[in-house]
Amino acid sequence: MAVIIQKYGGSSVANPERIKVVAGRVIETKKAGYDTVVVLSAIGNTTDELIKLAHRIADSPSHREIDVLISTGEQVSVALLAMAVNSLGCEAISFTGPQIGIVTDNVHTRARIVKIEPEKIVNELSLGRIVIVAGFQGITQDSEITTLGRGGSDLTAVALGAVLKAEVVEIYTDVEGVYTADPRVAKDARKLPVISYDEMLEMASLGTQVMQSRAVEFAKRFDVPVHVRSSFSKDTGTLIREEAKSMEKIVVRGVTVDKNDAKVSLLGIPDRPGIAALIFKRLADEDINIDIIVQNASEGGKSDISFTVMGDELKRTVEVTEKIAKDIGAKRVSSDKDIAKVSIVGLGMRSHSGIAAKMFSALASENINIEMISTSEIKTSCIIREKLANKAVRALHAKFGLGKQRKARRKRKK
Ligand code: ADP
Ligand code: ASP
Ligand code: MG
Q1: Which residues lie below 8 Å from residue 254, measured CB to CB, with a gap of 6+?
Q2: Residue 184: how many CB atoms within 10 A of its CB?
Q3: Confidence of residue 406 (pLDDT cuts 50, 70, 90)
Q4: Which terminus in the chain has less CB density within 10 A, N or C?
Q5: 73 lines ligand 2 (CB under 6 A)
Q6: Cβ neighbours of residue 358 under 8 Å, at least 6 residues apart?
Q7: Are strands 194-196 and 254-270 parallel, antiparallel or unpaired?
């Protein structure tokens, strides 16, 4: 029988009423003739609340204990959904990640899936049951509990989709699909009917929360068709799939913003060969992921290097960079948390010129200063002041004509 995976995010299971709605939807899918596997996130903001709780107990709790703590959220939601389905007269069974053999590496709080042993799920499906799996969690070869990074239930769903060869993985959330920009920021954002894996991957890595970037990467690698849609409506959402030639016609598919960026600057560095190699090797050795790098022109034998990292890595990065500064005789280190990265993403950027210039002029016309720039084949990103981020998104969204067309709206009203 064809397998379908449905993943419901925290807002889709935020309270008992919503859980009952999800139960109804899951049963409908089963009755339509699918082997149905459901992956759940924790209820509402449970994960955030658990992390806050941990930090009220200790300044820097160990990542192992954080994983033991935050993996509990999903165990609650799956048990409740199984009860809801059972009480509607349909058979369901819930499992944690470890119970169904989601084996990961041992990098706590952002573990990678190494393998999945699907026998247990396959067996339950063959007994006619709906299988409900706790998202976001796994177990190491040494029986340690791990989690898969924030938003990791998406990854659980896609990975199960790959091993069970699912017809589709449906990601149910609180918006109707993937939009041209966050619909909470650009009110006229449009739902995209389709998006390529590569565009979605860029958008997710550049701050579009609707799907975890690792999950998109996995879907692309194993060719898993994904449908992002709303648990609050029956409408079709956005299909994420392999690119087709016609997709290149759209120059800019979407605008994204990431407010979790921070900038570190090393000032007054001796300007000689090998210095950049030394700095970034030391940072890499500490497992610090660097995003954009800018080096200023040298003056009097000294130069400055600035780079961006994820905001939650800032404290650690500054500590490491200060040690490097001392060792290489740099003058000082400064840091800045109040930055954001706005980006435009689209396959068509490969074959069109002048797109970056158009982006810069949209920001200039709103008086937004660009502090750093980074480009790749299908995206251009600018670092700007964080407080101007939403204004920038709206300006770019309008400049590239991504919003709903006013004329079309007027026509529909008639
Ligand atoms: P879930 O709890 O279902 O996993 P998330 O909070 O992870 O949901 O993701 C859904 C949110 O992503 C939406 O509420 C929306 O505000 C945000 N979002 C940001 N950018 C976009 C975009 N381009 N399209 C759709 N949603 C977006
Ligand atoms: N509950 C986890 C989180 O909030 C996983 C998820 O929602 O996908 O990050
Ligand atoms: Mg999510």
Answers
A1: 178, 179, 180, 181, 192, 195, 199, 203, 208, 344, 345, 346, 402
A2: 10
A3: low
A4: C
A5: yes
A6: 399, 400
A7: unpaired
Q: What percent of the chain stands above pLDDT 70?
A: 98
State how far the Cα of 219 lies from the Cα of 2, in Å rounded to an integer.
18
Predicted confidence (pLDDT) per residue in 99-149, tens digit: 999 999 999 999 999 999 999 999 999 999 999 999 999 999 999 999 999
pLDDT for 413: 46
b/e for 66-94, b at 16 or more Cβ within 10 A?
Answer: bbebbbbbbbebbbbbbebbbeeebebbb
**Among protein residues, the one whose CA lies closest to atom 15 of ligand 1:** 182
Position in ligand 2 atom list of the atom nearest CA 48 = 4
Rounded to whole angstroms, the Cα distance separating 169 from 228 reads 8
Contact between residue 285 and residue 321 where contact means Cβ atoms under 8 Å apart: no
In this structure, the number of other CB atoms found within 10 A of the CB of residue 328 comes to 16
| DSSP 8-state code for residue 59 | S
Q: Supply 271's token pair.
A: 């300007």
SS3 389: helix
Amino acid at 174: D
In short, whether 178's Cβ falls inside 6 Å of ligand 2 is: no
Say which ligand is closest to the CA of 48.
Answer: 2
The reported pLDDT for the residue numbered 408 is 47
Closest ligand 2 atom to residue 42 Cα is: 1
CB of 41 within 6 A of ligand 2: the answer is yes
* CA–centroid distance, residue 143 to ligand 3 (Å): 26
97 Cβ closer than 6 Å to some ligand 2 atom = no
Hey, which of 6, 40, 41 would you mutate to test ligand 2's pocket, going by the most ligand atoms within 8 Å of its Cβ? 41
pTM > 0.90:
yes
Predicted local confidence at residue 71, as pLDDT = 98
Q: Which ligand is nearest to the CA of 10?
A: 1
